[in-house]
Amino acid sequence: MTDEARLADFEARIARGEKIEPGDWMPERYRSQLIRLIQQHANSELMGALPEGQWIPYAPGFKRKMALIAKVQDEVGHAQLLYRAAETLGKPRHEMIEELINGSSKYSNVFNYPCDTWADIAMVGWLIDGAAIVNQTIMQTGSYGPYGRALRRITYEEAFHLKQGYDLVVTLITGTSAQRAMCQEAFSRWWWPTMMFFGPPDKQSVHTEVLQRWGIKPKTNDEQRQIWLQKFVPKILELGLEIPDTALRRDAESGEWHITQPDWNEFFRVINGDGPMNRERLALRRLIYDEGSWLRRALEPHLALPKAA
Amino acid sequence: MANPATGAATVAPATDRTALDTPPPELLGALKRYLLALADDEMLLGHRDAEWTGLGPILEEDIAFSSMAQDELGHAKIWYGLRHELGEPSPDRQAFLRDAPDWLNARLLELDRGDYAASLVRQYLFDLAELLRLEALTGSAWKPLADAALKLRQEEKYHLLHGQAYLERLAKGADEARDLLQAALDRLWPYALAIWEPVEGEADLVAAGIVPASAALAPVWRAAVVTRFERAGLTVPLSHDAVTGGRRGEHGPELVTLLAAMQGLYRSDPEADW
Description:
- The structure holds two protein chains of two kinds.
- By secondary structure, chain A is mainly α.
- Chain A has one domain: Ferritin, core subunit, four-helix bundle (Ferritin), CATH 1.20.1260.10.
- Chain A has twelve helices and two strands, in the order αααααααααββααα.
- In chain A, helix 5 (118-139) packs parallel to helix 7 (177-196) and helix 5 crosses helix 9.
- By secondary structure, chain B is mainly alpha-helical.
- Chain B starts with 27 loop residues before the first helix and ends in a 6-residue tail after the last helix.
- Mean pLDDT of chain B is 93; it is low at 1-11.
- In chain B, 60% of the residues lie in helices and 0% in strands.
- Chain B is built from nine helices and no strands.
- In chain B, helix 4 runs antiparallel to helix 5 (143-171).
- The interface between A and B is large, with 47 and 48 residues.
């Protein structure tokens, strides 16, 4: 079969809704785009474990402490699952982690913002996990089998995180005046990074067209953002939180939310390494990697992973 | 009865009397202290283990230590819970509002996390002790204690399997890994010996068949430790000098620092719902 015929066959399979599996023929660009995407997603889970993980020692009370450990543990488990999904496309995990710590592979911008208060943990758990669920629910309908299956399992667990995040927000916003103030302050800060979470508006996004045709990214950034707004804005208003976008309004006819665009220059600045926490987060991840090097060396002969006795 | 984890005989409580539903009032103080020592050990180990959560040297061990952290905290909550039933404040208030001199943990558990080798060795030394103690406590004359011990020991068995697998894999491998493990064992050893420091009044509880004598468990534990570590190619120090005092509320600066972090937010408003 010629490459053209293979490509036609490949696109026809995707059009029919079939899943592409690891051994199947695929265009190199499909493979490289998927690796880039899954790797970034895995990186995001791993980097997302840092801001939340750093709050574990301070979590107030058994319930919060144990729930936060369980949550961060899930995130690390998601990273593991996703790196494995990317490995099915031929790139080993250590190479991906090395690219993460040397800065050549990206991760979600939201983790380059600080979590200075306990209420930030509530916001990450509610707003950001909520955004991740929107994104992952869409992505799991994508064309690559192993990624979709990993995402289904991940989304299932994220639903617990969202519940937990919401419970935290409700506890704080119905709590003492200091707790309410802390909650509103954190919300106001997280609003804009949340608006940026789904990426730039479609007309500015460089990757979207081919990703959609090949079923790698079934919905656009703007469509995903809109789904999030539909889900979250009513709940935010119901809780009495004040949204820092004074121009926010709902179009009576289409039902769509219109927002003030966040500062996309800031978005590109952060993605290129110049956000408030980029250096610190990557330095920490690098330190962990360096300090663990003896362990990886010692385990190398066992990487076939013999089961515990 | 043979202990499946240690291969040694378990130590049964001293007497064989009818199960007690309520502890005798004259033993209440000692019993609460004993439970507090159990709870505080687990609380601090859980806290220290969770210092690997999100920060583990490899993803698999990040996840494993997070699981053990949750187990240990769960155990702490059960022991604080038994004290709560005996009239003490809620588990949250016991763990998050008490100052260092009121903690009865062995100092092993308050030490800074250290590197991965230190965490692995500390966890393993403690788990061997804990399983032995839980096995013995299943025979406690005070039924709630026997029931709790029965429930908890299953999880400790999984911890031991984990520790054993990694210890052997690492210690039998490169010199680099073995040296780190040996250094950790040498450093932690005097603290580990003090796991068996009895709380005040333990003898009365032993006489009533409520708890096993720590002094009887200690040599059984030591024999198990020697077997396990030497099988992995490590040398257990000969010393019997223990860093005691923890069970009397004497602690190092590490505990003060740990509690400042762990309790700070909770104490900022203990009446608030968090």
